[in-house]
Amino acid sequence: MERNNLYPIFLKVSQLNVMLIGGGNVGFEKLSFLLKSSPNANVVVAAEDFSKEIIDLAKAHDIPLMWRSYTKNLLHKQHMVIAATNDVEVNKEIYRDAKVKQLLVNIADTPALCDFYLGGIVTKGNLKIAISTNGKSPTMAKRLRQFFEEVIPENVDDLVLNLNKYRKTIKGNFTDKVTRLNKLTEGFVIKG
């Protein structure tokens, strides 16, 4: 069986410079996904033209729009770039330029030209679960996201906050704390 070797991380995109290039449907999808998960994302969107949906979403979140075609100077002082243009050659150019600048890059619908994927995300208060299919099936990630959104109770954040308070009261070394928290939470997992 093939294995997913991606390393999941949670980025503070409110503290990073994110450039999204593309103003159509795919650009809207990428911007929506980013803002749904991180409403304070520090993102700028560049394109020759923008769909009404992107304009409205950008206005609602105070996201700057740059009305221009791609040039590599758009990548100046960026940490990551998402390319969602409808031009395969421009997307490849963005990828090459991003790699020269050692930026993290995602080229929409082109897994071979991605350092990261935008997978399914479930958020319930402080709890966040990321789902990846290794770029093989975004539809499966979507269905799993919907499943977890249904089965994880809305009040799970109360449990997370209570566990955090309890964790702060535990005395002893790191191993002792982990052992006590593991013992307390072992009933969360259904065995057999």
| Count of folded domains | 3
Order of the strands making up the biggest sheet: 3-2-1-4-5
> How is the biggest beta sheet arranged?
5 strands, parallel
* Alpha-carbon distance between the two ends: 23 Å
In short:
The protein has helices at 25-37, 52-61, 88-100, 138-151, 156-169, 174-185; strands spanning 18-21, 43-47, 65-67, 80-83, 104-107, 120-124, 127-131.
Structural notes for this entry:
The chain is of the alpha/beta class and 192 residues long. It folds into three domains: 18-118, NAD(P)-binding Rossmann-like Domain (Rossmann fold); 119-152; 156-187. The protein has helices at residues 25-37, 52-61, 88-100, 138-151, 156-169, 174-185; strands spanning 18-21, 43-47, 65-67, 80-83, 104-107, 120-124, 127-131. The strands form two sheets. The chain has a five-stranded parallel sheet, with helices on both faces. Strands 6-7 form a two-stranded antiparallel sheet. The mean pLDDT is 93.
Secondary-structure topology with pairs:
Layout (H helix, E strand, L loop, with lengths): L17 E4 L3 H13 L5 E5 L4 H10 L3 E3 L12 E4 L4 H13 L3 E4 L12 E5 L2 E5 L6 H14 L4 H14 L4 H12 L7
Helix pairs in contact: 1-2
Keywords:
five-stranded parallel sheet, alpha/beta, 3 domains, 192 residues
